[in-house]
Amino acid sequence: MDSIKEYLDKNKDRFLDELVDILKIPSISADPAYKGDMLKAADAVKARLLEAGCDTAEVSPTPGHPVVYAEKIIDKNLPTVLVYGHYDVQPPDPLDLWDSPPFEPVIKETKIHPEGAIFARGSCDDKGQMYMHVKAMEYMTQNDELPCNVKFMIEGEEEVGSEHLDWWIKENKEKLQNDVILISDTGMISKDTPSITTGLRGLSYVEVEVTGANRDLHSGLYGGAVANPLNILSEMIAQLTDENNHISIPGFYDNVENLSDEERSKMAEAPFSLEEYKEKLDIRDVHGEKGYSTLERGSIRPTLDVNGMWGGYIGEGAKTVLPSKAYAKISMRLVPNQDWKEITELFKKHFESLAPDSVKVEVKPHHGGYPYVTPIDTIGYQAASAAYEETFGKTPIPQRSGGSIPIVSLFEKELDSKIILMGFGLDTDAIHSPNEHFGIWNYLKGIETIPWFYKHFTEMSKK
Amino acid sequence: MDSIKEYLDKNKDRFLDELVDILKIPSISADPAYKGDMLKAADAVKARLLEAGCDTAEVSPTPGHPVVYAEKIIDKNLPTVLVYGHYDVQPPDPLDLWDSPPFEPVIKETKIHPEGAIFARGSCDDKGQMYMHVKAMEYMTQNDELPCNVKFMIEGEEEVGSEHLDWWIKENKEKLQNDVILISDTGMISKDTPSITTGLRGLSYVEVEVTGANRDLHSGLYGGAVANPLNILSEMIAQLTDENNHISIPGFYDNVENLSDEERSKMAEAPFSLEEYKEKLDIRDVHGEKGYSTLERGSIRPTLDVNGMWGGYIGEGAKTVLPSKAYAKISMRLVPNQDWKEITELFKKHFESLAPDSVKVEVKPHHGGYPYVTPIDTIGYQAASAAYEETFGKTPIPQRSGGSIPIVSLFEKELDSKIILMGFGLDTDAIHSPNEHFGIWNYLKGIETIPWFYKHFTEMSKK
């Protein structure tokens, strides 16, 4: 396995060029206008997986965007690693805040990434991290270092809630059998402090629509006499949290897992500077639920955020309109043992109850996902930990993340596997934001670390 | 003057065609992209005024959009009527709610307008109503019926707060001297019930910007820990009114003119059906300040409306973003004796005080205008009333409107004139909304009534 560093040195320019080619494809799953690009991205991933040494690969249709599936079975008696990733990306807007176009990747040095970082939508989340696995596979097959079977499942609907994956997994249950599932779609604490994500929050995502009069009205003639959906929606949103930033939806906290004081003090040991955090974000103060620290608010506590809101005149200048409609996209991050379907129902019921008679309200559930926690005493976790030790020279820290990967709890339920989240991104990579980027150092470090996981996992499995 | 009906019959098709030509020009003052069309519209108005019999006409520049000025002085000893109107229009969006393109006028019959109505942005507000005066002028000069001097001042910034008119009026004070100012930029109760607008509300229009972190963030990683500007802006807007829909800005009501019980019961006599009102707007209930009727809420009471609000992801599907910024356009309608500059300051101070330390807030004043009330015992009002009696066979009802025309109080202050608001639009004309239209009957009735005003005003002035 020592040849991995040499292989990386020799091939790193090509590894970057190949990633750049994939990043150029605007595979935005949320927008139907990019359906053709979604297929183009799926085809590219399939081709690269075959080149990397997979025996078979296919673009497998779903009622939405297709899943790319590939595999190399060397011996049925050896363990099988299933790699999951996604080739779809978040919409890039607001476009005017990007320093370079989101689908024209450029490499630039930053303070955190003096070796350079690739700036493009999807560079970190998740094309860059997914492609580390493809290149690790190439190394292992080219150098006779693949110690076990491997399956790839790269989906196209992660950013829209993996809507059809449930169906697809059930359809392909036999084919997907594995001993561990490996995912790189999260981050680590810093380049000096490797970490493995052991917890993810769940998600409930809804869209709400408030309707006043049947048409836009003149605010001079009707203002003050007819309900303004924007004022009303603001008032309704304000009522979703109380003065301590607790969520006011009845029943919302009923099943929330409360950590013990011991667990909370262990969490508090993670390296974290509130001053640095505020400075990086340029905020005078943090903002969150009373009684919890910033780290806790962002990981073990549920949240409610307006992700988008609009209505009325939003162009240049002034228009004295009393709009007919107001809209908001609202998402809630959930923690163990909240059930996203139950929470969505509680939200809907409560939100509708807040509406005065002067408006009509519609709540449309978008999608959701269950929270997940990885046990650290499994072979999967131990193998991952050993792999980081090989390449970072340090034991990684187990860490709960505030993000959500809906697939994770679905995998556990349908395939009865443990999921290992080996993420190589950084907090500062601006995923889901303008100027998303992924450090070249991180990209190469990921490719270097992954084969060690295969080695240790196979060896530990034999014992 | 009896020849006016005959003249209308003979020329009405041409009168319509000429208006259609002007409506085709997208003279949107709020959007800099339409600067060329603004000039095109000004040139067209100038040309039509010369054709209608004015001796001189000019497109007079301002630091913003130009004013069209024209006049015909027949005898310095006779009274002078100054006609005001505007050639700019409101932005047409949301475009997808128009049944036909806003700048491709079409004539269609409606329930209220069986004679047909012209559908186009500006058809009623104010190109259609302004053009009635041009055609009334044509009739009077062609038929030797012009009894006095006339001046026209047609501006291009009414829909953006007449920003440079103050300057322009001061520059042209001598030239603008007059005995009465005549404006058709309001409505009447119904085709059966003529009315003259005797009051207008003032306006304060501001834009607010709430900033959280210095970039859009992933709502999974930062949600719950960092302020969400959309949640915060909603909470701040909710705090601008109380549970009785009173405005909570300290000092806001200090100078509000309170009507006597007698005045309020006189107002309550105006024909109004709450059931019809709700049915037309398709609302289950009205919504407004406790203790006041719908008519009062829309005319004699001040208001606060969010005219537009936006932030975060507003495209198709879902994006789990914690936005960096949230915006709202907010306007307040003011009543006598509120000072819009003072109110704007009160709003700014209060709004800034509502912001928690976790966000930055900016309040940008857009524009404003003073409220106005016309006395009904003036020659101007009496002449207008007599004119309606000639053509409608009924005495018009004096009525307070909820809308604002910032110029009106400016005129009174700078030119020391009384302003007569002879509006021929209807409530249902959808001004500032999609599918704005103006009844052909109303257009022709306006052209018929205006010359009678000149006749009566000149005769009453001689006494």
TrEMBL record, chains A, B:
Gene Ontology terms: biological process: proteolysis
One annotated GO molecular function: metal ion binding
Keyword Hydrolase tagged: yes
Domain called Peptidase M20 dimerisation: residue spans: 199-357
Pfam families named in the record: M20_dimer, Peptidase_M20
Record-linked InterPro entries: Bact_exopeptidase_dim_dom, Cyt/Met_Dipeptidase, Peptidase_M20, Peptidase_M20_dimer
This protein's UniProt keywords: Hydrolase, Metal-binding, Protease
Designated name of the protein: Acetylornithine deacetylase/Succinyl-diaminopimelate desuccinylase
Organism ancestry: Bacteria, Pseudomonadati, Bacteroidota, Flavobacteriia, Flavobacteriales
